């Protein structure tokens, strides 16, 4: 049966859109115009490919078409400035060469349009919410309604974030380039933070009625794989990819047939994705070969301890506790200390863990963090303190924003009263 050209266009667009926008944005110095030109090229493909057939190099066809539209648009502009005239000359020269990649700066040691785009979308001038929305929009290929559904906000809110982000980039004249030296390292941290935020919202939804949103995890993984291929010598990029692969490998086992959460200790490890684990371990090995000891590489090493264990009892909990101790030095955080307490409780007993948790109860950063009373309740229950555990489970339920998680915590509080573990 003949391939549906519209399906082919959809697949090509998904694969090429980000690169297309990246190249056009660098040439036109205008984020919004780049997106419009890319959309014009898509419309042209929808009009012509069903009759003329899909070209051998669809990505190059889209880029050439978009550049021609850019030339036409700039020529029609009644207020052509010298800058616009120069852009016309550059675009005409690039079109004549027929090179869809255009001019790659020989001094750019990474030299990829997509990496330029991701560094621009994650510029520190933008709020975290704007960085996430813009990254998903232009790199993840999601529509505005899809981004809105993913983060449970209105389409108007997402659209406003994206528009404001573009205006900010234009107002500040942010160059479409990969920064160098110290600035690049600082910006890379922002890029990785955005990708991991997207992944985490898919892996453990903070609000709504679902435990997980696998599509968001897939988007983050795809972005992580792109980054890893573009920056193979950056250990934290490989560390983040390893962490996401290893965590995603447990996705199918995290929810049971009724849609309820299955905690790590109770998961059927036969349902873990072995190929995902292997990909994660390979990425971790690459990060460690680059002497990666950053936050993502360390968290990936912790996830690897779980992935390598055949059962909860076989898990190397002392190593996990040591890794959390190192992570606490590299990235001081009360959340890291809370996770460290859990690992120490597993390695050395619940009282050890509870003692560390009790040092965190007055931390203002954890005042509304439902996992603090949840962890404390678990440890109290293991120590036989049912009444105190029940009160902590109830407090955790009151703070939880996810409907399913709130219901689970309420059930656990009830179990404490009824004497059921």
Automatic annotation (TrEMBL):
Residues 187-287 form the DUF6596 domain. Coiled coil: none annotated. Residues 18-77 form the RNA polymerase sigma-70 region domain. GO terms for biological process: DNA-templated transcription initiation. InterPro entries: DUF6596, RNA_pol_sigma-70_dom, RNA_pol_sigma70_r2, RNA_pol_sigma70_r4_t2, RNA_pol_sigma_r2, RNA_pol_sigma_r3/r4-like, WH-like_DNA-bd_sf. It comes from the Bacteria. Residues 119-169 form the RNA polymerase sigma factor 70 region 4 type domain. GO terms for molecular function: DNA binding; sigma factor activity. NCBIfam families: sigma70-ECF. This is RNA polymerase sigma factor (Sigma-70 family). It comes from Oleiagrimonas soli.
């Amino acid at each position: 049966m003949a391939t549906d050209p519209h399906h082919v266009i959809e697949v090509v667009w998904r694969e090429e859109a980000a690169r297309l926008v990246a190249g056009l944005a660098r040439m036109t110095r205008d984020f919004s115009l780049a997106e419009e030109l890319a959309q014009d090229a898509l419309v042209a493909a929808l009009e012509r490919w069903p009759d003329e057939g899909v070209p051998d190099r669809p990505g190059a066809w889209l880029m050439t078409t978009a550049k021609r539209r850019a030339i036409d648009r700039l020529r029609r502009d009644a207020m052509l400035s010298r800058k616009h005239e120069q852009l016309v000359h550059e675009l005409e020269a690039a079109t004549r060469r027929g090179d869809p990649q255009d001019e790659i700066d020989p001094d750019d040691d990474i030299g990829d349009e997509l990496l330029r785009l991701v560094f621009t979308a994650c510029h520190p001038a933008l709020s975290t919410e704007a960085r996430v929305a813009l990254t998903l929009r232009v790199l993840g290929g999601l529509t505005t309604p899809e981004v809105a559904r993913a983060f449970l906000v209105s389409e108007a809110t997402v659209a406003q974030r994206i528009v404001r982000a573009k205006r900010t980039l234009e107002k500040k004249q942010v160059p479409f380039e990969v920064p160098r030296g110290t600035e690049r390292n600082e910006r890379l941290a922002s890029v990785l933070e955005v990708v991991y935020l997207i992944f985490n919202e898919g892996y453990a939804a903070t609000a709504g009625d679902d435990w997980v949103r696998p599509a968001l995890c897939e988007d983050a993984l795809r972005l992580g794989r792109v980054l890893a291929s573009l920056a193979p010598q950056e250990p934290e990029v490989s560390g983040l990819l390893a962490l996401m692969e290893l965590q995603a490998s447990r996705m199918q086992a995290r929810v049971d047939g009724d849609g309820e959460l299955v905690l790590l200790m109770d998961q059927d490890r036969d349902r873990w994705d072995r190929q995902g684990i292997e990909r994660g371990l390979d990425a971790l090995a690459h990060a460690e070969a680059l002497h990666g000891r950053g936050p993502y590489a360390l968290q990936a090493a912790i996830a690897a301890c779980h992935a390598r264990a055949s059962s909860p009892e076989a898990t190397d909990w002392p190593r996990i506790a040591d890794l959390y101790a190192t992570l606490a030095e590299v990235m001081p955080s009360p959340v890291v200390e809370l996770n460290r307490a859990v690992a120490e409780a597993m390695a050395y007993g619940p009282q050890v863990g509870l003692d560390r948790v009790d040092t965190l109860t007055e931390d203002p950063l954890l005042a509304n963090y439902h996992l603090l009373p949840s962890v404390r309740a678990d440890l109290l229950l293991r120590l036989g303190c049912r009444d105190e555990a029940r009160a902590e489970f109830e407090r955790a339920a009151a703070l939880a924003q996810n409907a399913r998680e709130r219901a689970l915590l309420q059930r656990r509080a009830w179990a404490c009263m009824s004497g059921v573990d």
